[in-house]
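Dear all,

This email documents one entry for the complex benchmark we are building for the journal club exercise. For each entry we list the sequence lines for every component of the assembly. Then comes the predicted three-dimensional structure of the complex as a token string, followed by one or two observations. Please use this as the template for your own entries, and keep the labels exactly as they appear.
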Amino acid sequence: MTALLETVEVGKSFGSVIALNGVSTVVNAGEVTCVLGDNGAGKSTLIKILAGAHQHDTGEFLIEGRPVRLSSPREALDRGIATVFQDLAVVPLMSVWRNFFLGSEPRRGWGPFSWLDGRTARATTKKALAEMGIDLRNVEQPVGTLSGGERQCVAIARAVHFGAKVLILDEPTAALGVKQAGVVLRYVAQARDRGLGVVLITHNPHHAYPVGDRFLLLKRGRSLGCFDKADISLEELTRQMAGGAELEALEHELRGVQQ
Amino acid sequence: MALAVQGTDERVARVRLADRLVSRPELGSVLGALAVFVFFSVLTDQFLSPMGVANWLDDSSTLGIMAVAVALLMIGGEFDLSAGVMTASTALVTAILATQLGWNTWLALLVSLGFALGVGALNGWLVMRTGLPSFIVTLGTFLALQGLNLGITRLVTGTVQVSGMRDAAGYESAGYLFASTVDIGGTAFPISIVWWVLAAAVGSWVLMRTRFGNWIFAVGGAAPSARAVGVPVVRTKVFLFMTTAFAAWLVGSINILRFTTVQANQGIGLEFQFIIAAVIGGCLLTGGFGSAIGAAIGALIFGMARQGIVFAQWDSDWFQLFLGIMLLAAVLVNNAFRRRAERVRK
């Protein structure tokens, strides 16, 4: 089976700043690839390359085995790569159904006189959300009235509905409470079970480990390795993420403060 | 519930009619218009006479055409300060071509339209290209156009006005479209009222019922999100600037064909009236929310108050006071309504 997405030693620099260097990973259908790293590790740069917002300078980026260079987010979308960014997933003042179909509105009528098929859009939105197990009272309500978790879920459901093959989630759980984060992770698992390849970006190994099949660890723009779930434990993942020995030293220090 | 249609959730029934109404952005302007209407109807005799009605509808109409276009632009998250002076620029282009160069009125109108769309596109392109606030960019075009209006008019005619439109070829037929009157019960209603209603209807249809309308809300509400899901943000905004310029051309054409004379300093200060009418109609200054119908009604409030004050034989100074209070009230009401609208889900 060819991987949906594959990066081979990709790198990206902005002027003299090397943001990403020699990162390799794969995203398979029906699997979750987690990208973990602290702030400034290069997570954002990597997903922006995958999402078409940036172009890589070195290495290779393959979609279904063919090397590509995406020119825009639109091109990524057309190739079935949907990205849900942390804070720019939705337009808060617009209703749920208008958000759901934004950029892919169903229309009736002819040419310049075609109009928005609101009835279909509302019904489809409700159905698509229900299929993902999201139960909203009213698809007319502004998305701004939803909780952070619900917003992420709407964005995920939207990507799934529009036939994304790869779903990239940028820190979907970062601003959420424990319960909300759990709900979002459940939808991540749902998307995976529907056969999508999921890229989950997070800095929380406790969120990544339960749903992830593969873990790419980034640090200062470099890869610390890409591990299958069988090859790494949650403890090891956490230790690697936090910088191992550094964290132990920090813990020691903090204990000193407490006393 | 009688209103319940297939597919709605039973919990939605809890959204009462009152709540549904306040989530409409134009409600404030409808209430305001009713209040002003009743107030002047009771206070003065002429206000409700056919002559009076024609008077305030006429006053509202050209303002209303602009307010609808400006409202769409504001919902799209941008301002156009050059819109007021554009109504004079387009009239001047038409008038100079027709009277000084002896062009046919229709041809002059066509070139003037091209000029307007060009300036609109330039506004949009500059704003999108530079990423500067449209407030500053269009302030620049506003001043530039103001200078051009005066400079070129003086250069061509030696005065600060262009007149003599009546003698231009094609004046009659073009005037029929833009500046005729419709006789209803012995009172002449100007055709601009029809254009105003048409603008409100088309504006509202585009906004609420088309894909482009969806894009307008999106680029004004959260442009990066819109871009991320594939909405052509630049194209949408440039088109909105061009729509405003088109409306300015329409109003300029109505004015020049009706009065046959245009002053080079006309239109200055009108841009704020357009914005105020749009805000009274429920547009948020921050974009992403508003109504085209509301803006048309905002213009109606304007016209009714301005003419009502004349009928009541008050000093017209009071109009500015009224305007200020109206604007503040509208902004406060808009904010309150928006918060309420977002809470309706309970």
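Observations: The two ends of chain B are 18 Å apart (CA to CA). Chain B touches chain A through 33 residues (CB under 8 Å).
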